[in-house]
Amino acid sequence: MICIRAGTPRRAWSSLGPPAVWGAVAVTYRLTCPLVHQHGLGARIATGAVFLAVGTGLVLHVRRALLRELRQARAVAGAAQSVLLRPPPPRVDGLSVAAAQLSADRGAAVGGDLYEVIATEHGVRVVMGDVRGHGIAALGTVAAVLGSFREAVHDEDELAGVLRRLDRALARHLDARDPEHPFAEDFVTVLLLEIAADGALHALNCGHPWPYLLSAAGADHVSRADPLPPLGPFPLPPDLAAVPMGHLLPGQTLVLYTDGVEDARDTHGRFFPLPAVLTEATRDGPASSQTILRTVLTRLLHHAGRRPTDDVAVLVVNNARDPSTRGGEAGGAGNCAAGPRSAAAGKHL
């Protein structure tokens, strides 16, 4: 406590001292130097040089102060953003996970996309979402949705309960932010996934792109069912229930993403071919989550040729569980034809 108080005047002097010194030099020169009162060319040149030096010193000091404040602000924002959208651990209950995002705002580390992977007693639960808008302006909504998800996944037995908690948290956030703001203009697309110990998949989708399932045949959407409306504009239906999506077998991979990925265009206006890139990434056999993530982001930046105009997020989940365990056997029973190939893929990984 003493150190903080003692340091405050010192910091204040360090910021006010140089301008005061330069000002004192200018005033002293003006009052005491005989050259000021002379009208010759040499006197004018000397006076101009003195005041130019004073002005340059003040400008340089202000510039250094602004850069120092900017660095401090970026450090604080970076720390806050890394806590908000923390990187997932590489392994979550036997699943290999890799994720990354790119903000459309150059000065922001995160934007309007969100994701999280959490192991619970109900299974591994995953959220991928996209807030309307992008960049720093969307961080408040991201914080509200992620905070609610991180609590609800442990408390709620069913995914439907988790989704209702997210919907209520979003409504409270929007009301508290601006009660007069049109509610229908704000929304969040959300995809909730639950991966059981045997690889069984259940999902609830509110306006978000379905994930791609990677297999030997290439990349295909895990479902083509019509999603629910995004959270925000419309109430959730009363008979809300998670939809079964088959099994994520050992060695298989899910790729979740936000629409900024497939909407990225090159200089000719062509959209980013995500399915083709995913198929190419696994053409020579199963690839790790990190390899698939790195391939997608590298190809995306090369395709766009610049920073994306919309926030981008990619989450890769690979079932790296041992197929010889009980969970692996249960998953194989759900798809007998794919069982031997998946088991071999799991051993390869």
The gist of it:
The chain is built from nine helices and eleven strands. By secondary structure, it is α+β, with helices and mostly antiparallel strands.
Written overview of the protein:
The chain is of the alpha+beta class and 349 residues long. It is 45% helix and 19% strand. It has a six-stranded antiparallel sheet with strand order 1-2-11-10-7-8. It has a five-stranded antiparallel sheet with strand order 3-4-5-6-9, covered by helices on one side. The chain is elongated.
Provide the descriptors you would attach to this structure in a database record.
9 helices, disordered C terminus, six-stranded antiparallel beta sheet
